[in-house]
Amino acid sequence: MTVAEELNPAVSDPAADAADPEVPAEAEEPIKQRKNGLYPGVSDELAENMKSGWADTELHGLEPIAQAAETAARRAALSARFPGERLVIPAGNLKTRSNDTEYSFRASVEYAYLTGNQTEDGVLVLEPKGDGHTATIYLLPRSDRENGEFWLDGQGELWVGRRHSLTEAEKLYGIPASDVRELADALREATGPVRVVRGHDAGIEAALTDKVTAERDEELRVFLSEARLVKDEFEIGELQKAVDSTVRGFEDVVKVLDKAEATSERYIEGTFFLRARVEGNDVGYGSICAAGPHACTLHWVRNDGPVRSGDLLLLDAGVETHTYYTADVTRTLPINGTYTELQKKIYDAVYDAQEAGIAAVKPGAKYRDFHDAAQRVLAERLVEWGLVEGPVERVLELGLQRRWTLHGTGHMLGMDVHDCAAARVETYVDGTLEPGMVLTVEPGLYFQADDLTVPEEYRGIGVRIEDDILVTADGNRNLSAGLPRRSDEVEEWMAGLKG
């Protein structure tokens, strides 16, 4: 932190207010300071000095963002679904990490999907007009230099960086822009039916508290979730970008496994994160860098364990693009480059299950088909190995394979790693696959270190293989085919990377 920490937001300019007879003394709000700040305050001379001497930095000749046509089409679909109703979709606010530091901001998926904008405090409002709606994007304007906000406010531009002017925003996003600080009051006075996407902006929700219902708001959230089930061409392109960067991130990890052995799983996490931050916005979710028995913990994100030669590394990670689309890929790699006989047997069973699952992904198929196909293969192997009593039909009917497979075989993928989560069951899990859907296929077998129902040599081995699959008009396309999957190909790939 720097001197930016020294002064908190100032709503008014003390020097200006003192000279203004219209402002009563009790309305003056002194500049708030940190308890242990080094500066006692701001002199009138410094306040005046900071108002002038700044160049005009307005940006000209801006072109619309790459997905402007797609976001306009999405807003049109939303408008058609809720005619005559005011629709309010907030981006969300900064969240405190600790004391006076915030988490990195990520706009709500609904807001980013409809606007392409990613700044905190933004709100998209669709006002009913005739047979459709008029869209307005409400944003914070440039920091005010007259009242000192730009250098006194903790979120002023001098401290956190320049933001677009409202005029610039209109050009970029193709939506009329207004000052968000005026929105809450306007919404309090609004009449007619209103819906809001909840859970992102408490201030906006408070302004609408007597105008909305949970049931109606949930209908809005569900519609926006289901709208993302089928991806447009822009989205498919972004997902491929995310996957391509993820492939390079996996290659990065293999090249430094010796350094991870000398340190911990954290080295793997940091290595992949570097690729995600250099080529994308972030990781799409907490990377799972699970070595040895940690591979049996499905969401192992502590990543603080040892990396040992002879063990397996289950790496489940994905790069998120600058437009918020994330990959979600898993490979289970032999840390020393070669699978043991037992590791290979378990890995090949999961590979065969994944092959069956991927083959079941095609237009017109039931969403559940790929899961059922993969689970059948795993159940067959477990019976074959004598780990569970058959027949296979009995195992599947009772779900007995789940002791070692644990999770479903995949999920929708997009702007969320578990995308479209609010969609209705009948359109998602009980739905039918269509071209443009993107989902993961990720079977796994996990033999917990303390599982006394399996032979000792199985214990502590966990294997998952996950790929991102696009449903096409005539079948499917594996977006993550750039990473080897078959056990012999994995070994050859690792040997080539290690040189």
From TrEMBL:
Reactions catalysed according to its record = Release of any N-terminal amino acid, including proline, that is linked to proline, even from a dipeptide or tripeptide
Q: What class of enzyme is it?
A: hydrolase
Q: Where is this region: Disordered?
A: 1-39
Which lineage ranks, top first, belong to the organism behind this chain?
A: Bacteria, Bacillati, Actinomycetota, Actinomycetes, Kitasatosporales
User: What are the names of the required cofactors?
Assistant: Mn(2+)
- Note the coiled coil stretches, chain numbering: none
Query: Do the record's keywords include Manganese?
Result: yes
Query: In the Enzyme Commission scheme, what number(s) does this protein have?
Result: 3.4.11.9
Entry protein name:
Xaa-Pro aminopeptidase
